[in-house]
Write a structure and sequence with these properties.
The complex is a heterodimer of chains A (304) and B (397).
Chain A lengths: L7 H10 L6 H13 L3 E5 L5 H12 L3 E5 L6 H4 L1 E3 L1 H13 L5 H8 L5 E3 L1 H5 L9 E5 L6 H13 L1 E4 L3 E4 L5 E6 L7 H5 L2 E5 L4 H11 L5 H15 L9 H13 L7 H6 L1 H4 L3 H6 L2 H18 L1
Parallel strand pairs in A: 1-8, 1-9, 2-5, 5-8
Antiparallel strand pairs in A: 3-4, 6-7
Helix pairs in contact in A: 1-2, 10-11, 11-16
Chain B lengths: L2 H17 L6 H14 L4 H12 L3 H14 L6 H8 L15 H21 L9 H7 L7 H13 L7 E8 L5 E2 L1 H10 L9 E7 L3 E6 L5 H17 L3 E6 L3 E3 L9 H11 L9 H16 L5 E5 L9 H13 L2 E6 L12 H6 L5 E4 L3 H12 L8 H8 L1
Parallel strand pairs in B: 4-5, 4-7, 7-8, 8-9
Antiparallel strand pairs in B: 1-3, 2-3, 5-6
Helix pairs in contact in B: 1-2, 2-3, 4-5, 8-10, 12-13
Classes of the chains: A alpha/beta (304), B alpha/beta (397).
Chain lengths: 304, 397
């Protein structure tokens, strides 16, 4: 288990260890969240590295990562705990076979911890020799308000109540990272308990750093052109502009194709890796690609 | 800098300063040109302070000079606009460029005048019938007195919305469910000592879908907007998941404003947010803004979209149909509420209407209280045949 970072610079360095190139605003809010023990609420467009924050934290701090993937219909049975009914049934039958008829007794035995199946939220509240785990609540916007309200309770006191067992409280609160894609507005009450951060698209310099960290084998020229092109593309009026994840995918795809530099034909053949809407793809025709490439190259020249 | 250009530039600059309210006469211009010659200015800073020495006579003018200088010597065209923006009000003003709102106001006047007349000509309803209540139900909101409006308001507030229900993936105890509820089954069985297994069931839970209202507040709709807002306020109170957007020439999200408890306060808060009341309509642009910025945020979880507009778009082109199509594809149900539908002779003739019709699930009349009840029905029932947009299109063709 590593110690928590002592400063914002420490936080930056810590993230960089795990190849996450954070900007200073993220490092600041992350540092504060670790220091103050408050959940971190990250919102941002898809593919900007929100989920990665929690993964990197768990890796660099040596904590266990517990992930709760939210979806519509997520309920307590899937998020907190469930009883092992099969085992309980067998236990009841066995007790009967042994001539045990005391109802209280059977009930007590059957609803004990050995028949409890712990789901992510309960797991996160358990004591851990490696220190409190990192709890990632991913894509919170996909669940409904009712679950959000329940979560509010958990995050306020870091405890849950199982009626048959009693209240389970975390000895030390977990490091909580909540992500949202904003397909729904998350309620203010929940946001209020968290530190908020909006993850935007990185600037060219940072994106290039990210690309080189994640794909060390990629050529200098290609990586610069890829970043330049994507940056130029983000300025276009698109329905969905590519995120960092798309940049990485694209760069990966291009190096698979043994490209050393971008040319309009290659770009047009691989555009599906970057853009996921037909209207957007249709808008970026050969002429547009050429213009964007020229713009990227001009930017590169200017930067030199 | 050669002689002629320099003098020209100084003259222009002086003119700009004058426009910005600095008392700069022709004498000062000559002084400035001379000063520049005398000072043998080399760089930008020198020019700055030389001209400053000549043109600025009061400390408070220094700021204006500074702004003017920076803007003028960067790009000339920008100057007048920027100057106008930074002027203190007491100073003499530049010849004014048309104000931003002027066009909209004209739009508003024009559109409400021309359409208002049309409407009055074809007015057919508003028969006086037996009870007060019925009269009220047949009247347009536009013609109602304050008292009648109050009555209409309470009518709307009393409407119980039996909303359209959607199945969620979440389960709840149900007598005739399809899945065995193990938790309850076990509890129930233990009550009897475990000898009998009493099966309990789970079924899908139902829920009202979120509602997203897009309300047209342009000039042609102005007589209805207030009551639509009341309606939206009433349903927002009832059902928490309502997002309200207003659009004329631009899109405004008033979801938070309309959540105020008191309807009048809510409406006041709405109007404080909106810059384009009763102006022109740009449906395509507004829908585009909605699709791009908001659709992904508010249309999750099977939302029903209520598009409240007369569909009278000025410049109909491909974007309108494109954006309508996208909106249609990203929501569960798109209901168009059109106040123009009250006329029995209404046909889908206007180009905007024709462009939008193929992309909506249903088109509903919503012009007076009777139709308001219809709207509630529209929200709860399956699309009625009479309001099938395809049917209307066929009529025109």
């Amino acid at each position: 288990m590593a110690a928590l970072p002592a400063s914002i610079d420490d936080t930056l360095a810590l993230m960089a260890q795990a190849d996450y190139i954070a900007d200073r605003s993220l490092a600041t809010v992350l540092f504060l969240s670790l220091r103050m023990g408050r959940p971190l609420f990250v919102e941002g467009e898809a593919g900007t590295g929100k989920t990665e924050i929690a993964k990197v934290l768990s890796r660099t701090l040596g904590r266990k990562l517990i992930r709760l993937q939210c979806y519509e219909g997520l309920d307590v049975a899937a998020a907190v705990y469930e009883w092992n009914y099969g085992a309980q049934m067998i236990a009841i039958r066995l007790a009967e076979a042994e001539g045990e008829h005391d109802r209280e007794r059977i009930e007590h035995d059957v609803f004990s911890e050995q028949y409890l199946i712990k789901r992510p939220l309960l797991q996160a509240l358990e004591p851990d020799p490696d220190g409190a785990p990192v709890l990632l609540i991913d894509e919170l916007d996909r669940t409904d308000e009712a679950f959000e309200a329940f979560l509010l309770e958990v995050l306020a006191d870091f405890q849950v109540t199982v009626p048959e067992l009693g209240t389970i409280k975390a000895p030390r609160p977990p490091i909580v990272v909540i992500t949202s894609n904003r397909t729904r507005e998350v309620h203010d009450a929940l946001k209020r308990r968290c530190l908020y951060h909006w993850v935007g698209y990185p600037d060219a310099q940072r994106e290039l750093k990210i690309l080189r960290r994640k794909l060390p084998g990629i050529g200098k020229k290609l990586s610069e052109q890829v970043v330049g092109f994507v940056q130029a593309l983000r300025k276009e009026d698109m329905f969905k502009v590519p995120g960092v994840a798309e940049t990485l995918d694209w760069a990966g795809a291009l190096s698979e194709l043994d490209a050393v530099a971008l040319d309009p034909a290659t770009v047009s053949d691989t555009l599906g890796v970057l853009l996921k809407y037909q209207d957007d793809i249709a808008r970026i025709d050969q002429g547009k690609i050429k213009a964007l490439l020229d713009e990227a190259k001009a930017e590169l020249k200017a930067a030199e | 800098m050669e002689e002629g250009r320099l003098a020209d530039n100084i003259v222009y600059f002086a003119r700009a300063l004058r426009a910005a309210g600095l008392p700069v006469g022709p004498g000062a211009v000559i002084d400035a040109i001379q000063a520049l010659h005398v000072a043998h200015v080399g760089n930008r800073d020198d020019v700055y302070w030389t001209l400053h020495a000549v043109f600025v006579k009061k400390h408070e003018h220094s700021v204006i000079f500074d702004q003017a200088f920076r803007i003028f010597f960067r790009r000339r065209g920008l100057l007048e606009k920027m100057l106008a923006a930074m002027l203190p009000e007491t100073m003499p003003q530049t010849p004014k460029s048309p104000e931003a709102g002027a066009q909209r106001i004209q739009d508003a006047l024009f559109s409400s005048m021309s359409r208002g007349e049309e409407e009055r000509e074809i007015e057919v309803d508003a028969r006086l019938t037996v009870s007060d209540r019925e009269v009220l139900q047949k009247k347009d909101f536009a013609q109602m007195t304050a008292a009648e409006i109050a009555a209409a308001k309470s009518e709307i507030a009393r409407l119980a919305l039996p909303f359209d229900r959607v199945r969620t993936r979440r389960l709840a105890a149900a007598r005739r469910g399809r899945m065995v509820d193990m938790r309850h089954t076990l509890r129930a069985s233990l009550k009897g000592g475990g000898a009998l297994i009493d099966l309990k069931y789970l079924g899908p839970r139902e829920k009202e879908p979120p509602i997203v209202a897009l309300l047209d507040i342009s000039g042609s709709m102005s007589q209805y907007t207030r009551l639509f807002l009341h309606f939206l306020h009433a349903i927002t109170e009832r059902e928490k998941r309502v997002a309200t957007f207003l659009f004329g020439t631009r899109l405004t999200n008033v979801t938070r404003a309309i959540r105020e408890r008191d309807p009048d306060e809510a409406l006041a808060a709405c109007s404080a947010h909106v810059a384009d009341w009763a102006g022109g309509t740009r449906i395509a642009t507004s829908l585009r803004a909605f699709n791009k910025l908001w659709a992904r945020r508010v249309l999750g979880q099977g939302a029903v979209v209520l598009l409240i507009t007369d569909g009278l778009e000025r410049d109909v082109d491909d974007t309108l149909s494109f954006e309508m199509d996208r909106l249609h594809r990203s929501c569960r149900r798109l209901v168009w509420l059109n106040p123009l539908l009250r006329f029995e002779g209404f046909e889908a003739r206007a180009r905007g209407v024709r462009t939008m019709l193929p992309h909506v699930d249903e088109l509903r009349p919503i012009h007076n209280l009777e139709s308001m009840t219809d709207l509630v029905r529209a929200l709860s029932g399956a699309p009625a045949k009479a309001y099938d947009p395809k049917e209307m299109l066929r009529k025109v063709a």
